[in-house]
Design brief:
Number of strands of chain A: 6
Number of domains of chain A: 2
Distance between the termini of chain B: 61 Å
CATH class of chain B: Alpha Beta
CATH architecture of the largest domain in chain A: 2-Layer Sandwich
Helix content of chain B: 25-40%
Strand content of chain B: 15-25%
Helix content of chain A: 25-40%
CATH class of the largest domain in chain A: Alpha Beta
Largest sheet of chain A: 3 strands, mixed
Structural class of chain A: alpha+beta
Strand order of the largest sheet of chain A: 2-1-6
Structural class of chain B: alpha/beta
Number of strands of chain B: 9
Radius of gyration of chain B: 18 Å
Shape of chain A: elongated
Order of helices and strands of chain A: HEHEEEEEH
Radius of gyration of chain A: 20 Å
Oligomer: heterodimer
CATH superfamily of chain B: P-loop containing nucleotide triphosphate hydrolases
Strand content of chain A: 25-35%
CATH architecture of chain B: 3-Layer(aba) Sandwich
Bound molecules: guanosine-5'-triphosphate, magnesium ion, zinc ion
Largest interface: A-B, 44 and 36 residues
Distance between the termini of chain A: 53 Å
Largest sheet of chain B: 7 strands, parallel
Chain lengths: 131, 228
């Protein structure tokens, strides 16, 4: 159950982003990429994230956008690029050799945080005044 | 206004753990020791392998063990009986060791005289794979009673290790486990993995394992900054 640790780490990054963005009020969405070779279970992570985000008003409305791309490998024999999968025992579908090198699939990153900023509120006020 | 940060990667998740692992590694390198992280499913034979290995290693080398368990000190006590220095980490609800838990031990321990530091991780084939501790080498144990398809089911840990030990090979006559097939599965996931078939009951493969350990130790000494 390391998904709770991962969720906590995501929320820390979100909070840091709020803290260093002038006028930031709260987080709206966080975009996370977890590669196939990172042992992340989608349901567990979503559950952990949605539970833990509630402890802070600035993150409680934050939506988790979780992207889980399949891995890409170069095969051992011929450097074919392919997506290693369980069904093929992670071997190359063209020549049957195994993974020579994984070129992607181990990412575990926050790529983007969308924030609502105070400017938004000011604009709303402004709009009201004009009307 | 909705403000978005740039589209490129913002920050690595679990980078706290990676930073602390790098920090632990600095301590290990400064002490000139070789650190091995032992990982497996519960009961694959990590403590038994340590008991057997330390019997030999302790004759010539200073060895120490960090024992990770969710609860209790049973494994630590087994090793202490052999006169081995053991530090216990009780992980509580956590199903893996992390670099911070290890850092606490590292900071409270005299490492300078050590040659080998073994870390027995919590029995689990999933979570420990994502939490490097600063170790130089990662060793995965797969007992023959678990089935030879385990590399296919837990690819991450087998992809990210240096050695796989097929343990309890004395039981091969009674179970449907092909060492050749398991080796193939591992090597298809991880071209640099070395596989050994071992048994602490018959002693099969133990010399190969001990030889690998000593060559890994020599290698690590070569890579370390020379200190006079
Ligand atoms: N037949 C046989 N049994 C073994 C061998 N190695 C270990 N065992 C037995 O397997 C059981 C579990 O061994 P441990 O060494 O406690 O396994 P472990 O991986 O440390 O277990 P946890 O720390 O609880 O995850 C014990 O009953 C051992 O005696 C072996 O080579 N052959
Ligand atoms: Mg044990
Ligand atoms: Zn190929």
């Amino acid at each position: 159950m390391h998904e709770a640790t991962i969720a906590k780490s995501i929320l820390e990054i979100v909070s840091k982003q709020i803290a260093r963005t002038p006028g930031a009020l709260r987080a709206l969405q966080v975009h996370v990429v977890a590669g196939q070779f990172r042992n992340v279970d989608r349901e567990s992570l979503e559950f952990a994230f949605d539970s833990l985000k509630m402890f802070d008003q600035r993150t409680s409305g934050c939506e988790l956008h979780l992207e889980m791309p399949s891995a890409t490998a170069l095969c051992k024999e011929s450097q074919h690029a392919y997506h290693p999968c369980y069904q093929q025992a992670y071997c190359c579908p063209l020549c049957g050799s195994g993974i020579g090198k994984l070129i992607s699939g181990e990412e575990l990153d926050v790529v983007n945080v969308s924030l609502e900023t105070v400017l938004h509120e000011e604009q709303k006020d402004h709009a009201r005044v004009v009307r | 206004m909705h403000e978005s940060s740039d589209e490129h990667m913002l920050e690595r998740i679990l980078n706290n753990n990676e930073d602390l692992a790098a920090h632990n590694r600095e301590h290990f390198d400064a002490a000139g020791l070789l650190c091995i992280n032992l990982m497996s499913a519960p009961g694959a034979g990590k403590t038994s392998l340590l008991e057997r290995s330390l019997l030999d290693l302790s004759k010539h080398w200073q060895c120490s063990v960090i024992e990770g368990d969710m609860v209790g000190e049973l494994d630590a006590d087994r090793l202490r009986k052999l006169g081995v220095d053991v530090s216990q980490i009780s992980t509580g609800k956590s199903c893996h060791l992390d670099a911070q838990m290890v850092a606490r031990v590292v900071h409270s321990k005299a490492l300078d005289k050590l040659d080998y530091l073994f870390i027995e991780n919590v029995g689990n084939l999933v979570c420990p794979a994502d939490f490097p501790l600063g170790e130089h080498k990662r060793v995965v144990l797969l007992s023959v009673t678990e089935g030879d398809d385990k590399p296919l089911k837990y690819p991450v840990i087998f992809h990210n290790c240096d050695v796989v030990l097929f343990t309890k090979c004395d039981l091969l006559p009674y179970v449907n486990f092909s060492v050749a097939r398991a080796t193939q599965y591992v090597q298809d996931l991880n071209p640099r993995a070395q596989c050994f078939a071992v048994s602490i009951v018959t002693g099969q493969g133990i010399d190969d394992w001990l030889n690998w350990l000593s060559s890994a130790y020599l290698q690590s000494q070569k890579n370390m900054p020379v200190s006079i």
